[in-house]
Large ribosomal subunit protein uL10 (Pseudoprimorskyibacter insulae), 170 residues
Amino acid sequence: MDRAQKEKVVEELGQIFESSGVVVVAHYEGLTVAEMQNLRAKAREAGGSVRVAKNRLAKIALEGKPCASIADYLSGMTVITYSEDPVAAAKVVEDFAKENKKFEILGGAMGDQALDRAGVEAVSKMPSREELIASIVGCIGAPAANIAGAIGAPASNIASILSTIEEKAA
């Protein structure tokens, strides 16, 4: 790899470290190509990505970035999993680590917050962005659904609801 290629890799990694909601570093020594492809596919499904890069280049790219604290984890055969969603990458690596004992999560970062092994596990148990949006929409939509159900009910049901309300008011 010549100097221009190295500079390009450092620039790409720098953009990854700056724009990602979460970055997780793990050792992957002993995994087969098929297992790594499986990890990449799972990360892609969740909206994340997996990147293997030279540790030295990754450390250069980390300088001045919010997640610079993960530089300590970059030794040996490391893989970086990242996503814009602050939870997606952590969930993917946790699930993958349960299936593959050779895959060892070292730690990571969520913005400028450093995460150790337990921190990555805690983040993976949080609801994802989509799950939070779905629960909020459910809360907002519930009263409207109740009103629509009452309006669509037969007249006798509406009459009984109105009489109940009248009794409570009296």
